[in-house]
Amino acid sequence: MDDGISALRHKNPPAKDILTALEAVLACDTLRLSERNRRFLSFVVAQTVSGNGERIKAYSIGVDVFGRDDTFDPTLDPIVRIEATRIRSALTAYYEQKGAGDRVRIAIPPGSYVPTFSWARRDAGARIKRLPISERQVVRAEAATMIINDRTSRADPDVASRGELFADALVGLLRKARFKVHVVPSAEHRAALDAIHEVFSHPKDAYSLDIAVRPMVAHRRYSWRLSDLRNGEILASDSRDYVVAPAPCFDLIDALAGDAADAIASAVSDR
Amino acid sequence: MEQVQKRGLARLMLRWPAQRAELRRRFAQDPRLVELCEAYETACEAAAYWTKSPAPVGPERAEEYRALITATEQDILIRIS
């Protein structure tokens, strides 16, 4: 298990930001945490922030949070282990939804009661912080053509709009990486379609990027697949499931597009 | 530990026959659901232990774990919904 000192190494968020993050979590009205589990989370965060992470054990939580007496035996009375799992699940749900934009993430890793803290991948303005695509990748991309084919079904307008957002984000990022980008258009845009057919006919240094947003039970699956048009070889692919929110999660879509653009630039530069 | 998780899944599939396919599918994909299945099974076993326990605190503990079973069931239903 991690101890408090290692959980607070210098690259991790400062205590002030961690405590602010804790307040944000606890203030969330949809967070599925009992009052007792809110005390549990507050206790382990406070102990870790104050450098006492090594004191966090099932026994100390049982006594200090759950009011057990000094005969408390976590093997016969596994309340701490069960509630830690429920907190872990609640935190996951929180960061998938309302807390998606939080700067600092609190987690309780499996097998531990000592929380860990990390910076979210976006800053306060929800802009994506990324390492610049390397010069080598840009030079390689300058010669390459990328054809984006959005395969999202148009039957569901909500899913279709998310697919369009995903495509828009990718177009911007791939153009920034100096790809020549085409999006497979609707049939009425004949000129663009003809230009793409021309690329398909002579696929020198051209790639196909198939993307889709697919409805699942309570999630939307965002996926992309990069292939070489010359031989159909799949060069990279990925997918992520996001819980359905009433409105499209722009931050999550932008973050996924950013990761995809990085991976695509890297895959193409390695050719 | 893996056996505890599977026992939890099996218990839930008996509890909610209509959700069997979804539980099985999500169990294969969602680590948080796997952990919740383990927590559920652990709570069920603890409830059974304290129900039989002759300790004075037994009934109180048994009641606490029965409440925890219900709460964990709700967590799981939300997770798979």
Account of the protein in words:
- The complex is a heterodimer of chains A (271) and B (81).
- Chain A is of the alpha/beta class and 271 residues long.
- Chain A has 2 domains: 4-119; 135-269, Rossmann fold (3-Layer(aba) Sandwich).
- Chain A contains 9 helices and 7 strands.
- Chain A has helices at residues 4-7, 15-27, 35-49, 58-64, 79-96, 135-142, 157-176, 190-201, 250-269, and strands spanning 104-107, 116-119, 145-150, 180-183, 206-215, 219-228, 234-243.
- In chain A, the strands form 2 sheets. A 5-stranded mixed β-sheet of chain A has the order 4-3-5-6-7, with helices on both faces. Chain A has a two-stranded antiparallel sheet with strand order 1-2.
- In chain A, strand 6 (219-228) and strand 7 (234-243) form a beta hairpin.
- In chain A, helix 6 (135-142) packs across helix 9.
- The radius of gyration of chain A is 23 Å and the shape is elongated.
- Chain A starts with a helix and ends with a helix.
- Residues 1-10 and 123-131 of chain A have low confidence and may be disordered.
- With 81 residues, chain B is mostly helical.
- Chain B has one domain (2-80).
- Chain B is built from 4 helices and no strands.
- In chain B, helix 3 (31-52) runs antiparallel to helix 4.
- At the A-B interface, helix 5 of A face helix 3 and helix 4 of B.
Summarize this, please?
Chain A is α/β, with parallel strands linked by helices. In chain A, about 45% of the residues lie in helices and about 20% in strands.
